[in-house]
Amino acid sequence: MATDGEKPNNEITPFLKSKGFDEKAIQELFNKCKALQHADSKNAAANWDYLTTVGIQERKLPHVISKCPKILTLDHEERLVPTVQCLLTLGSKPGDVGAAVVKFPNILCHSVDEKLCPLLAFFQSLGVSDKQIGKLLLFNPRLVSYSIETKFSKVVEFLASLGFDKGEHIGKILNKDPFIVGYNVEKRLRPTTEFLKSIGLGEQEIRRVVLNFPEVLSRDVDKILRPNLAFLKRRGFSNGEIILLVSGYPPILIKSVKNSLEPKIKFLVEEMGRQVAEAAEYPQFFGHGLKKSLEFRHKVLKERNMSCSLSEMLGLNQKKFAAKYGLVGGIC
């Protein structure tokens, strides 16, 4: 298995076998991490056992170690425990750290002082809340491996180029969509911005879209945004109406055509007997649930032989709508 001069520690191989790794799998671990061949078995065992205490099921540990065998070589007291303890401060639920490790085991190999602390300080300086930083790093742990200078700072600079203030607006954007920092500026964020310009949105309108629904900026233009635009055109919306729709309800560009947009427009036209232009006047129409809101409220108005605009029908919350139309118990 190992070449002369690189004979595996007599203790580590039996340990790995006791955890379910066969000789082929063990060799693959050694190929991935040369240091594992000479790792201390007691330290490896301590690391293995410790990971089960942070929410990682025993049956998932072989998968974790297969992806990152270096974990077993980390000094238990000086490296592994401090890293896990730091990550635990970011989690909102007991299993968050364990889930993050299973998703991206290499997160445990990054130094607290050299990597995690600078990352935390960077996002805090932008006004990102601790809760959102935790969501950012634990729900998408691969981001820990990215560089502040070559990755995250470029996203921040790009957002600043759109007219957002680094100390206020950008923090709000990252709080709403912390995953946006993981996207490539030139391959994803700039193309989506140019797409928004191409359909007629001005700088102020684009800033409103990004500030309120930043997730629109991180969607693929050709796979999601352009097909949704084509659908809206097919359904009869004019260019001017599309600008109103996107400005008023940006998620219309990322909602599922099949499961959301198409059924709602079909109901608007065929069941409610309205024109699509009415939706352009009240874009929030597309933000309402079909069954719980649209169908129910239309039924209430129809039974009372009443007509009103979409904004009058949908602009009230459940309690106010129920009170206005005399629903028993205020249920809507």
Description:
By secondary structure, the protein is mainly alpha-helical. Helices cover 60% and strands 0% of the residues. It is elongated and about 85 Å long.
Key structural traits:
single chain; 332 residues; mainly alpha; 0% strand; disordered N terminus
Overall geometric form? elongated
- Could you list the spans in which at least 5 consecutive residues all have pLDDT below 50? 1-5
Characterize the quaternary organization of these chains: single chain
| Mean of residue pLDDT values | 91
Please report which band the strand proportion falls in: under 5%, 5-15%, 15-25%, 25-35%, 35-45% or over 45%: under 5%
Helix content: 55-70%
Element order, helices and strands? HHHHHHHHHHHHHHHHHHH
**What count of helical segments does DSSP give?**
19
Number of strands: 0
Give the radius of gyration: 27 Å
Distance between the termini: 69 Å
- Biggest sheet overview: none
Structural class assignment: mainly alpha
What does the secondary structure layout of this molecule look like, with pairings?
Elements (H helix, E strand, L loop, with lengths): L11 H7 L4 H10 L8 H12 L8 H7 L8 H13 L7 H8 L8 H14 L4 H10 L8 H14 L7 H8 L8 H14 L4 H10 L8 H14 L4 H10 L8 H15 L4 H6 L8 H14 L6 H5 L3 H7 L8
A few lines on this structure:
The protein is built from 19 helices and no strands. The protein is mostly helical. The relative contact order is 0.05.
